[in-house]
Each structure stands twice: as structure tokens, then as C-alpha cells.
Write a structure and sequence with these properties.
Blueprint (H helix, E strand, L loop, with lengths): L1 H9 L10 H8 L4 H6 L16 E5 L11 H6 L9 H18 L8 E5 L8 H13 L6 E6 L4 E2 L3 E3 L2 E3 L12 E2 L7 E2 L10 E7 L1 E2 L13 E5 L7 H6 L6 E5 L20 E5 L6 E5 L4 E7 L5 E6 L7 E4 L6 E6 L9 H9 L6 E5 L10 H6 L9 E6 L3 H12 L6 E6 L10 H4 L14 H5 L3 E5 L5 H13 L5 E5 L5 H14 L7 E4 L1
Parallel strand pairs: 1-2, 2-3, 3-9, 8-10, 9-11, 11-12, 12-14, 13-15, 14-16, 15-17, 16-18, 18-19, 19-20, 20-21, 21-22, 22-23, 23-24
Antiparallel strand pairs: 4-7, 5-6
């Protein structure tokens, strides 16, 4: 080995240069697509390495919001029709052409093609059709993973503002979901040939008109994601035509699009149901599908479930078969959970009582379940839960809710709190509001996991406000078997960061064997 390294150094080579183009392409595929293309100028050896990059990925993080005053001369008065996505489209074309040129084969098609527009324009339709035609014709004999999302969907959230729960925006009700697109992208009709491509393994569609032909043939499709699909009529038919489907995600499907004119006030019932009992899913995600009234799923092999929306009805989700869901994420997108909804919320949680990893997201960070109604309703017990994550705005009510949840999870070993920043509070005014904490009023004797099982605590975005300090002290003073603690502090003065650090370390009981990490 030493002689080989010496020989390589004498000839000015390296180990990477000895690899085949296919392996170099696999390594370059982990870089952003533009950086991978720039690698061709590093050395002659890398000139054709881009041909081995089997993933073409372009994602637009921003979007233009329709026609504005400056857009009029750019789009409407132009002699040649052009789109504001021109630079984005040129980048995709350049990547495809460069890959074909490096491979020396006009039929060279990537294994994975990912293009996500910020806002699709009708003038982009011919180019998108050419991309799909190129991929579908040259995908024979290989797998194809296609991600074509033409509209950027924003998963908005409610903010905690001052002393009230509120959202900085007009017209948002307490239970309103803020997942939206502040514009309506032009619709793109998918070619019929797409629904008979046997090479497809992954299909992600967003902002498209889902109008498949009468006969759908996707025998090897394993992953299906549908996002911002307004028409829900063909969703069930597409799902039923994928016999090997194991991963299903529905995001903002069946929503009511913005309409104007005489038909704007007409009511259209867009409620729909999905049934997946003839195939065994491994993962199911339902995000902001508020017109989805019922989902019936074979949960025999279901391992991960994700839900985002309002507190669902008791008949919303039916799990068939003996299920063993190991990971569950529940994100309540309303501002709060009302007392009348708490029984339904507890009933919904019972479906996942055997999970090992639970992630709860809510505006109040679970503070709703500290009410008197929650005490009588009762939360289900999670005997197998070992990892608990809570995300939201932390205040004094959330501490009681945290204790109530921990009482129902006696086996928790890892606890993570993701504390969001309030709109009127900053890390710099902590010093002005600083005061000594009073005595704890909570009885921790009924929280067995704190003293017997909890080995890791993660506090993310810890700013040192009073409620956050109370929560940290409650946990650290009673975590006797704690082995690791991680605290993520925001940027601020070194003096204040050191003050928070010293205070937190003073609360740790098991100082001799607890690893503390601050970043």
C-alpha cells in the first residue's frame, strides 16, 4: 500500500483519480448540481465524470406572485413570450445537455430527476413537456425517480404575539390552517404516457392537473407524493393502480382553488376519502388535506405516520390489522385545541399508543392539555415510548402540559424541546427581564421517567426566558440518571450566554457522569 501511495505521488495522481467515472459520478451526486458540474474544470480526469451523476436536482426556493406592475412590460408587452422562470429553465437544460455531452451518448438519461418550480408559468409548458418526453423515452432498462412540483407550497404557522395567541396577518381564524400558496400557479396537464412508465420507482407531483388515462400501469412504483392537487377525483384511482406502493404522502390535496367571477361564490363539495387496504404501506403522511374526511389503511407493516391538520374526527383514520407504528409525528396547525376537541384528540392519540418515537407540534407546545377538561379526559399511556419531541411556543402552561405528558410515558429516554421564538421577544432583552426563579410547584414524584429512564435532554433555541428556565430547571434537577445534555443558544452577547450556561450547569444533579454540550 505504501509503494502504491508513493507511486501515485510521483506521478502527480491521487486515489480519487483512480476511481471509475461511475464512482466519481456517485460521489459528485452528493454535491449541489451546479457544484458537481464545476468539478469538470478541476482536472482533465474529471472532464467526463459528470456523466456519472445520475441525479439532476433544481429547486427554486422563491416564487414570483403573479403579474405585478413591473411584470407588465416584461411579460405582457414583450414581442416574444417569455417566463420569469427563464434562468431556472436554462439551468436545467444546461445540466441535461452537459451530462449527455460528457457521456457521449444522446440517450443518456439521469436516474433521478428533481425539478421544483417556485411558480409554474404557462409559457414553461413546452419545456417541461420536452423534459418528460426525454426522460420517459430513455428510461427503459433503468429505474426512474421523478420529482416534478410546479408550485411552492408554504407550510405557514401561527405566531405567539404578546399576551395573546395570534397570527400576524388578516383574516386568520383560530382554527385556520396557514398552509397555502399566496398565488395560483398555472396548471400543467401531465402526459398520458407518464402513467404507464414501468421504470418509475418514485413519483412526486405538485401543482399539476391530475387527469390520468383510463388505464394506469405503474407496476413498480414504490413512493408517491401528491402536493397541491386541487382535484381529488383521481387520487384514489392513482393509488389503487400502484400494487407495490409502500410510501404515500398527500399534501394539501383536494383544496379549493382561488376563483373569481360569478362562480366564485358557488359551493363545491370537495370532500374525498382514500382507501389503501390492498397494499401494505410502510409510511403514510397526510399534511393539510382538510377535505379528506376518511382514510382507511392496512397498517400491518406501517412503521411511520405523519399528520398535519386540525384535530380530526374519530372516524377520520381507520387502521386495519395489528399495527406496530414506531414513529409518529402529529402537527396541529390551528392556533389552539379547544376543550370540546380534547376527547377527540385523546382518541386520536390512542391509535399510536405503542409508538417508540412521538413528535408533537402545536402552537402552545401542548399547553392545551393542562386544562381542567384535559384532566377528566385523560391522555393515553405510551408504555413503549423512548423518544419524545415537543415543538411550539413555551410558556408557563406548557410546563404543566409537559409534566402531564411525561407521566403517561414512563419509558422515555430522550426528550427534545424545540422552543420557537415569540414575535415580541428577542435574545437581547433577556437581561432586562431577568429575575430569580421561585420554587417549583409541580409534584415530580409521579413522573417515573425523570428519575429512572431519562438519559438525554435537548433544548433547542433556548433563550433564557422565565418559562424556558422553569422548564429546564424542572427537568435537570430531577433527571438523576442523565448522561447527556445539549443546549442550542441563539446568537447574542458572550456575557449573557455564559450566564445562561452557568445557571444550566448548576441545575444538573448528576454532574459527574453528564456530558454537557452548548452550541
Amino acid at each position: 500500500m505504501a509503494s502504491r501511495n508513493t507511486s501515485a505521488q510521483q506521478h502527480g495522481g491521487d486515489r480519487l483519480s483512480d476511481l471509475k467515472d461511475e464512482l466519481l459520478g456517485t460521489i459528485l451526486a452528493f454535491l449541489p448540481i451546479k457544484d458537481a458540474a464545476r468539478a469538470a474544470v478541476l482536472a482533465r480526469r474529471y472532464r467526463h465524470a459528470f456523466a456519472g451523476v445520475n441525479t439532476i436536482s433544481f429547486v427554486e426556493q422563491r416564487a414570483h406572485y403573479g403579474v405585478t406592475r413591473n411584470d407588465y412590460t416584461y411579460c405582457l408587452e414583450a414581442v416574444e413570450q417569455r417566463s420569469k422562470n427563464g434562468e431556472f429553465i436554462d439551468g436545467v437544460n444546461a445540466a441535461l445537455i452537459c451530462r449527455r455531452r460528457c457521456a457521449g451518448d444522446i440517450n443518456a438519461a439521469p436516474r433521478a430527476f428533481r425539478v421544483q418550480f417556485g411558480c409554474f408559468d404557462e409559457w414553461d409548458e413546452p419545456m417541461v413537456s420536452q423534459w418528460l418526453s426525454f426522460l420517459l423515452k430513455r428510461s427503459a432498462g433503468q429505474e426512474l425517480h421523478l420529482d416534478l412540483r410546479l408550485q411552492l407550497t408554504i407550510m405557514g404557522e401561527h405566531n405567539f404575539d404578546g399576551q395573546e395567541w395570534g397570527y400576524r396577518g388578516a383574516g386568520s381564524a383560530d382554527g385556520e390552517c396557514l398552509a397555502h400558496s399566496r398565488y395560483e400557479a398555472d396548471r400543467y396537464t401531465l402526459p398520458a404516457r407518464l402513467f404507464s412508465c414501468i421504470a418509475l420507482r418514485t413519483l412526486c407531483l405538485g401543482g399539476c392537473d391530475l387527469d390520468p388515462p383510463d388505464r394506469i400501469r405503474l407496476p413498480f412504483l414504490e413512493t408517491l407524493l401528491l402536493s397541491s392537487i386541487p382535484c381529488s377525483d383521481n387520487i384514489q384511482r392513482l393509488i389503487s393502480s400502484c400494487p407495490r406502493l409502500v410510501d404515500l404522502t398527500l399534501e394539501r390535496c383536494g383544496y379549493t382553488p382561488i376563483s373569481y367571477g360569478p362562480s366564485a361564490s358557488s359551493h363545491v363539495d370537495r370532500s374525498y376519502t382514500i382507501t389503501v387496504v390492498d397494499k401494505r404501506l410502510h409510511r403514510l403522511a397526510l399534511r393539510c388535506c382538510h377535505n379528506l374526511v376518511r382514510a382507511s389503511v392496512d397498517a400491518t407493516e406501517l412503521r411511520a405516520f405523519e399528520y398535519r391538520g386540525a384535530v380530526p374526527a374519530e372516524s377520520f383514520l381507520t387502521l386495519h390489522g395489528a399495527h406496530n407504528i414506531s414513529s409518529c409525528t402529529i402537527d396541529l396547525c390551528g392556533k389552539m385545541v379547544y376543550d370540546r376537541e380534547l376527547p377527540r384528540f385523546a382518541k386520536f392519540l390512542e391509535l399510536f399508543a405503542g409508538t417508540k418515537h412521538l413528535h408533537l407540534k402545536s402552537t402552545h407546545l401542548g399547553a392545551d392539555i393542562e386544562s381542567d377538561r384535559a384532566i377528566t379526559t385523560g391522555l393515553p399511556c405510551f408504555p413503549a415510548l423512548t423518544r419524545l419531541q415537543l415543538t411550539g411556543y413555551l410558556h408557563t402552561g406548557s410546563i404543566e402540559a409537559l409534566a402531564r405528558i411525561l407521566r403517561q410515558a414512563p419509558s422515555v429516554q430522550i426528550l427534545s424541546l424545540f422552543m420557537k421564538q415569540r414575535s415580541r421577544e428577542t435574545f437581547h432583552n433577556v437581561r432586562e427581564q431577568w429575575r430569580e426563579l421561585g420554587d417549583d410547584e409541580l409534584d415530580v414524584s409521579m413522573i417515573p421517567c425523570l428519575r429512572n429512564r431519562l438519559r438525554e435532554i435537548n433544548l433547542v433555541h433556548y433563550q433564557g426566558f422565565e418559562a424556558q428556565r422553569y422548564a429546564a430547571r424542572l427537568l435537570l434537577r430531577n433527571a438523576i440518571v442523565l448522561e447527556r445534555m445539549c443546549v442550542a443558544l441563539p446568537r447574542g452577547t458572550l456575557e449573557l450566554q455564559m450566564k445562561l450556561k452557568d445557571e444550566i450547569q448548576g441545575w444538573v444533579v448528576n454532574t459527574g457522569s453528564t456530558e454537557t454540550i452548548f452550541f
